[in-house]
Design brief:
The chain is α+β, with helices and mostly antiparallel strands and 346 residues long. A hairpin with a 4-residue loop joins strand 7 and strand 8.
């Protein structure tokens, strides 16, 4: 039989079961709801771990069934196809236990901002946008543009994606930071080497079950005319919406829906999600200063270098993971970098 899974079984559930047992003790504490926020976090984590455990058990059962079928009919094309399908799922599932935060199972909003440097940086931002869109496609995620501002000559000034799929945020959360590109400039007639920067921000797409208190008096809502690609509805009316949360200074914008009402609804969803992420960062800072520092968004907090000249190398400065096939990375081959960061955070 193919060797994509260990012959003794698919996974060891003991660690997950121990964590769930520990959380069950906390859940059964009569004083649990003295702190409602903490209680909800515990219940969310327990639910997430139980879901992961059930998924792994289901896959382990399927593995054992396929082992028996393969022994009976090793050349059956249906059996071989089922094995290949399970192999692909297994590659992802073996990392399920790395997704521990309550929001890890959620979709994500991803924001890319060109750094200083005009056309060079804006072109680099567009390259990153394509890279993440291709990565999402590889995972079977949906990647929708919420807002995009084109560059003055080429590329983009910034873009916001909504990436929908199981554990999209868990995969993407460690992409926050500055991404640095070194290459021969296609915009310089002298062919000089150019260094460009762009920043990436990520926050979870939380649903309505997460309680985030937002007072209307704390909001400033502006409307403006949409720009860039987007179909017939763009540039016709002041349908784009910008919402500023005054107490925190958080600003969210949406322009790609078909009406001002739809743009406002999406912008409010983004705001709720962003405020949730800020609250999670505060809790992380209280519990673990090192983790909090890792998640801060600061210009200069460079996380990855993409070198296209004078050699080919993409290197993550946090984990040391390197890939010499830069074309594959820019085509969405990012999982090794993401997995190393998840393992580092264990």
């Amino acid at each position: 039989m193919t060797t994509f899974l260990p012959s003794g079984g698919f996974f060891d559930p003991e660690k997950l079961e121990q964590e769930i047992d520990s959380l069950n003790i906390q859940v059964n504490d009569p004083n649990l709801w003295d702190n409602p926020d903490n209680a909800r976090a515990i219940l969310q984590k327990k639910s997430s771990l139980e879901k992961s455990l059930n998924e792994l058990r289901k896959m382990d059962s399927e593995y054992k069934n396929l082992t028996e079928l393969y022994d009976i009919a090793p050349e059956d094309p249906d059996v071989i196809a089922a094995i290949e399908k399970l192999a692909d799922a297994a590659h992802r599932a073996k990392f399920i236990t790395l997704f521990r935060d309550p929001a890890d199972n959620n979709g994500a909003f991803l924001f890319i901002q060109a750094g200083a440097g005009g056309t060079e940086a804006q072109d680099w931002a567009q390259m990153l946008a394509r890279m993440y869109a291709r990565w999402a496609e590889r995972h079977g995620f949906t990647c929708d543009v919420i807002e995009e501002h084109p560059g003055d000559t080429a590329g983009i000034k910034n873009i916001t994606y909504r990436i929908t799929g199981e554990r999209a945020y868990g995969w993407l959360k460690n992409e926050i930071g500055v991404h640095r590109l070194v290459r021969i400039s296609p915009f310089n007639a002298n062919g000089k080497r150019q260094t460009s920067f762009a920043s990436v921000d990520v926050w979870p797409d939380v649903d309505d079950s997460v309680e985030i208190e937002i007072n209307d008096k704390d909001l400033r809502i502006d409307t403006y005319r949409s720009s860039g690609a987007g179909g017939q509805h763009v540039n016709k009316t002041d349908s784009a919406v910008r919402i500023t949360h005054i107490p925190t200074g958080v600003v969210v914008t949406c322009q790609n829906e078909r009406s001002q009402i739809q743009n406002r609804e999406m912008a409010m969803k983004m705001l709720r999600s962003k405020l949730y992420e800020l609250e999670m960062q505060k809790r992380a800072e209280a519990e673990n200063a090192a983790l909090a520092a890792q998640k801060k968004i600061e210009w200069g907090s460079q996380i990855r270098n993409y070198v296209l000249y004078p050699y080919q190398l993409v290197k993550d400065v946090r984990t040391g993971v390197e890939k010499t096939d830069s074309s594959a990375v820019l085509d969405g081959d990012l999982d090794d970098f993401m997995i190393a960061c998840l393992q580092r955070g264990q």
